[in-house]
Amino acid sequence: AVHKVVTTTPKAELFGAVVEKFDMVCIASKCTTECQACSQCTYAIEQMSALAQGEPTSGLCSKLETCVQSCLESGDLKKILKCVADRCNVHCYDGDCPSCRGMAKRMFVIICQQTDMVNLSHIQYSGTCPRLFNELADDYVAARRRVAA
């Protein structure tokens, strides 16, 4: 599914389309030894678990955690997931939560490398996958802020 998104989505919409496919619950449930050794990954998983159980979080990602908490109040899983994608994801990339951005960057770079994203005809990026992530993440935040304003 992600490969199709990468190969068919226009560059301007690519970042949102890819990162909104990340299923953090799935990633957390399949967390490997490598993930457990990564402090960013471990923190993200602990926060997801606390939020899901209604427990307090450490508050290191206050905007993201507050937003997710308000989405959880809707109760219905489909509504919660849509709310998080529409309203909260931006806080993963806007500087509020470096651990979330770091974890997303790791996943994006792997997808970028596996799909040779920088060389795709509709992407044509002369830099590296990590630099592409940074540029697209910043553009994504700027676009989301314009929509919210």
UniProtKB/TrEMBL annotation:
Lineage of the species this protein comes from: Eukaryota, Metazoa, Ecdysozoa, Nematoda, Chromadorea
Identification of the protein by name: Uncharacterized protein
Organism: Trichostrongylus colubriformis (Black scour worm)
UniProt xrefs under Pfam families: DUF5332
